[in-house]
Predict the 3D structure of the following.
Amino acid sequence: MSTVREQLQAQLSRYDDDAFAALANRGLLRRAYKDLESHAPTIVNESDEALHLAFAGQEVRFDLRGPAQAQCSCPASGVCQHMLGAAIGLRRLLEESSAGSEQRDTVEPNMAPIAEPAASAVPSNELLRDALLAMSYADLLKHAGKAGYRWAWQCVQDLEPEQDIRLSGERNIVIELMRPRMSFRYMGGALDSLIVDTQTAQVAKYRVAAVLAFQRAHGIALREPDAPGKLRNAELDLGKDHALAQTGVVALLDSRTRLHVAVRDLLQECIALGLSHLSEAVQQRYATLAVWAQGAEYYRLALLLRRLADHVELLLDRAGNADEHTLLDEISLAFGLILALGRTGAHGPPAHLVGRARTRYEAAGTLELLGLGASAWRSASGYIGLTMLFWSPADRTFLSCTDARPESQGGFNPVARYKAAGPWGGLGAPAQATGRRLLLTNAQLNAAGRLSAAEHTNVAVQQVAAHAFLQQLQPAANWQVLRQARQLQQRSLLAEARPMNDWVVLQPSRIGAAHFDSTRQVLIWPVYDETGDGLMIELPYSPYTEHAIARIEQLAGRTWFIGDLLLVRLRDGATGTIGEPLSIIKTGMADDANPVDALHFDAGPAPDALSEWLNKSRRPPSHPGADRGQSGRPSASPERLRSFRHWLRRQAERGTGAESAIQLSDELSGWQSRLVAAGLTAFGGLSEKLDVTARLLAANYVCMQCERMIDGSDGSINF
């Protein structure tokens, strides 16, 4: 068998209908199957570099790069139905040829054996994984160039590995990026064989980003791109150290001032032109401003400008995952951020507005922690992990430590991880930390409250009396006060995310009857405070929450012991604020007993009992990573506010240049007056002295802020 046949058979064996549809579309795939009913492809020419097939009156050429780079003699541009039909037919021919070779080898044992196809030698995706991991910096640089690699590297740095990268696939490897939302399929071969589901003119840099994301998810340290020439020259020591400090500060402030003006001008220009009429020049200007913002140490603004550049690029390519409404919200958020950065006074902008170049773990010295339990989970991005939760008495805050892996990597069981050694020296297993006092030395902590699982951190585990354990916690006994405090934390769109603030310790006065909603596949358990106010505890079903659901089912039949505490994570649900349970902290325990009941792991009074609810109404969730999702909820925003948002979007799509600025300003003033009269007084603060495009952006920002305060949602943007 020739080399080209081996390569093609190895790749084609990885293709399924989804892969062929990603290569073209579903319509062309149906036509290809229709053609195969009346035409059979035949090999007309074969060499060491290429293989030619005749199919449906056309000639299709395949080389070592596979179907993604096939060529057809028909006049159609791009992938056509003949390429798809020839690829499917060629796969059948090669499979029949391989099967015939096996039969001849059995019937005529004296003949020389023919080599087996590579795909049959390794049925799993290990070869594909190894090929992606083996792609070097030189390979990626050659494919996308220096600028493309620099963009791809920064794109991957901006992603959260556990949330924004999904890895899956059985016959092939699927890499999904959430920002920008794109999907890639790899069936083998070089970089140009990586199939992307979105048509874009600069596909090379997106392919490199997908490979870098895959390598990062598997623990490979990514090589930083070389700095541009001007930046490298600026880093040289020219013997003027005595003048660098002051000059650098003045230059930075001047650069930021000019950046404010440039960003505002571009944002307003986009509204004047209309979001449906943007050009490639606008995309390039956003990309340039993103580089400028990074150099000016405005990391949060740089991230948002990069997202705007990517969104405009996808919009120009008419990608299905780009739309003008989302772009308007992102532009409005950038407008609000640039205004906030320009009004920070002499002391400079706060850290949460500036952002950070990247999340870093910093030395935290010695920490005293109380172990509060753990839970296993699977994210929508394809990660599985175990998260341990702790309370820091000194800082009066929650901290966490997570051990996670891509599910596709295999060999990692988050449930079994609870009783496996580590993650720190001196800790026999995470289970030993639950209900115990821990002294961490050489601890490392990031700004989000996550502890590093670094091996050089050591821990001493100590037993603590139950009453002393409980005295360190700060339970909440009034749900209305709790809701108000949570609403204050979520008010601003520009506020820094603080996920540890979602955890609270509740002190219920009584509990209600729990039941399992078989339609939503969610456990619902009401708990009541001292005033009789109810808070819904909800736990979506997944293989990782099944044990906790059965435990709560057992608890529902007991009388709640007054004083027991419930540890939950608050989130926004269809009925308002709800909580997801993690542990029960018992107050009636002897001092030498463990006060923490880890619902996700600890055995109850009947450890072998199965949940009657789940046995009656178990069905798999709609998505394996959707166990923490929430069904859609109707908006609580007033009808007048929703109508105003619709009017703003219509103006932004078509642009403001086509209308009289005076007429548009009068319409906007009329909307403001009606909204203020309806009780939305925030719109009264929009100055009529601003340019009409600036007023439109400011008004849309206020709309987003009002929707967040009314609905309790995060808005349309995760930022």
